[in-house]
Amino acid sequence: MTVVLLIMTVFLTGLLGMHPMISVVLLAEVVIRIGVDGLSPLAPGLALAGGWSSIICMRLAITAVVYASSIVRERPLTIGLRWNGLFGLVSILLIALIVVGRPALMS
Hints:
Number of strands: 0
Transmembrane segments: 52-72, 84-105
Keywords: Membrane, Transmembrane, Transmembrane helix
């Protein structure tokens, strides 16, 4: 449950406008400080990286989305959410399944 919450927090805060780098750094610090019994350090690392990589293609203020929108003369909203939205959602679900589905990451 912890890793899914980490993934979703990075993803949702990215959609709300916080840069994924900031949310990942803050969440990593929190996880390190509180510690979660029985959770490998690899699991939160993969969760945070997965959340970051899933939102990066959808966030409207990310440089790649802004550049792509200017090249094809579309709004960043169209590029980020309409064109890349399905990819971002599928990748967030896949990373959640990978991290949660690997029992070795939980110990």
